[in-house]
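cron nightly-structures :: item 1 of 1
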Amino acid sequence: MKSLINPRILLFCAFSLSLISWDRMSKDLAKEYLRNKPARTFLHDSFRMEYAENTGAAMSLADNLSPQLSFWLLRILPLTILIGLFAYMVVHSRDFRTSRLMSLTLIFAGGIGNILDRLLFDRHVTDFMNIGLPILRSGIFNFADLWITAGVAWLAVESLKKRQFP
């Protein structure tokens, strides 16, 4: 007899909640220890921790949108996509390989982490990490951004592997 509770959905939910909590806690710590303070650098300035509030998308893209347009494009649209992703995960989770499930979980958790900031803090997403060399640096990001990037990269690698090795 099939169990009514899908263990893959439980894994998705538990992992998502864990990642969202990690992101939320790290942003709270950044606000407490980095806000209004100079950047902290590590490994000969390869890694910086500095506080920033981003009202735009990645790399402050669309930062200057009107509040109404920002509400729809940076809150409602991503939230709708994430609700759709959640529904897709619930319906199709039994069909996914574990790697696909985990990569989609990273994307979902990262998206929720940043949407929570936008909803709770009037469009602001807390960013606080920066990596690079003196001549080439990343933008300032947070763990939610890292989860999303890792999830997309994982999906891309899986897709490439599937095409090369049927």
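cron nightly-structures :: done
The mean pLDDT is 87.
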